[in-house]
Design goal:
One of its GO terms (biological process) is DNA metabolic process. By secondary structure, the protein is an alpha+beta fold. It is built from 15 helices and 14 strands. The longest helix has 23 residues.
């Protein structure tokens, strides 16, 4: 017999920290470090726009067998349509940290069902967001099958892929899985990068709490010189963030790689380890060195270092497609950005996604067809205008 409770305050979460952490660290139980209670508490302590909504499932002896960490917040759902962002929905939503519930494989179906029932019983919950969802997503399916009126909407307009490297015994074993050309290209580019950068250039690995402060300072400097800073400004030197990194490093869950030249970082690979899986959270470089290929070369070297240090662990590149991921990965899986919605207002708002997806894919097909430039321009203009008229009409 299972039971569940919903934790909505940080005090309750702190009191449950140890059993939640033990489950999250079990191999395969969590999808990433964002589902660890230490990360979740960091999110709550540093955000003013969200509150906790953590559904905890226990067995008949009171032991935790699963949980789903949500943030409750006012959310603005938008869909990227070319250079525009089309507004879809504004209102209350639950955002799941990670791609599903945290549970051992044997308990996952049961935990999915209990969490879905708990969410369904809360009538004020109309929108549930799984930003980086593995597909098929068992929690989304459980919500739809719960009989509480939920339906699933995928807001990624193109199919998305999550790339990973299956557990390897050593870097040599991984390189042996590649064809000779790819293997040669990777090693040649790495040697060429170091030759161009000159003496004194080296990779620095950070994985202890004592190194975190210096790492955060260096990372903050190189991040500010990358294109990422324009898209998503982050203060890596923030006190709370450094405290989180130090805590994770103490638990063996934090690994950072920096490419150093003349005492400065010019590229970085930032990730976390948990449950036999390393997740590459972010990578970037100083744009002044972009032509040398420092970013992709450091990723390659960092992965070799990880396989040497932690043989037998999966390397997960996270959500989304990228050329360097395709080159390095051995496996891929479908993923997407999901909303599970119910109620007249929310359902009506999200219905616009289906025609948007059709129009977006239609535009891409037209762009790829061989045709005079003026004809393509007119086609794209007409389709874009029709799309925007449809959105305005629906809002009206």
């Amino acid at each position: 017999m299972t039971a569940c409770r919903v934790l909505t305050d940080t005090e309750s979460l702190r009191s449950m920290r140890d059993p939640l952490a033990a489950l999250a660290e079990w191999p395969g139980a969590a999808s990433g470090i964002v589902q660890h209670p230490d990360w979740f508490l960091f999110e709550l302590d540093t955000r003013r726009d969200a509150t906790a909504f953590v559904v905890v499932v226990t067995d008949d002896e009171g032991a935790v067998i699963g949980y789903a960490p949500f943030l409750a917040q006012h959310h603005h759902a938008r869909v990227a349509f070319g250079r525009r962002h089309v507004s879809i929905y504004r209102g209350h939503a639950l955002r799941l940290l990670g791609s599903g519930v945290v549970a051992r494989q044997r308990d996952r179906a049961m935990v999915d069902a209990v969490v879905a029932r708990a969410l369904g019983d809360e009538r004020r919950i109309r929108v549930v967001r799984i930003q980086e969802a593995s597909l098929p997503n068992t929690l989304a399916l459980a919500l739809v099958r719960s009989g509480r009126g939920f339906d699933t909407v995928a807001t990624n307009l193109l199919d998305q892929v999550q790339w990973s490297i299956a557990p390897q015994s050593s870097p040599a074993g991984w390189l042996a899985t590649m064809d000779a050309k790819r293997r040669g290209d990777l090693t040649r580019r790495l040697r060429g990068m170091y030759k161009k950068l000159g003496d004194g250039t080296h990779m620095q690995t950070v994985d202890t709490a004592d190194e975190v402060d210096g790492y955060a300072r260096l990372l903050n400097d190189v991040y500010a010189k990358s294109w990422h800073a324009r898209e998503a400004p982050i203060d890596w030197n923030d006190v709370a963030r450094r405290q989180l990194f130090a805590r994770l490093a103490t638990q063996g869950q934090f690994v950072g790689h920096l490419l150093m030249k003349d005492g400065c970082a010019i590229a970085y690979v930032h990730g976390y380890r948990m449950g036999g899986r390393y997740v590459l959270d972010d990578t970037g470089y100083d744009e002044a060195f972009a032509s040398i290929g420092v970013g992709s070369s450091l990723v390659f070297q960092a992965i070799c270092d990880l396989m040497q240090r932690y043989p037998g662990e999966t390397v997960d590149f996270g959500y989304g497609d990228n050329q360097y991921k395709r080159v390095l990965a051995t496996d891929s899986a479908a993923c997407g950005s999901l909303y599970i919605v119910r109620g007249i207002r929310a359902t009506t708002c999200f219905r616009i996604v289906t025609p948007l997806r059709w129009l977006y894919r239609r535009m891409r097909r037209i762009r790829r067809k061989p045709a005079p430039g003026w004809a393509v321009a007119f086609r794209l203009r007409d389709i874009a205008s029709a799309c925007l008229r449809a959105v305005r009409a629906r809002r009206a």
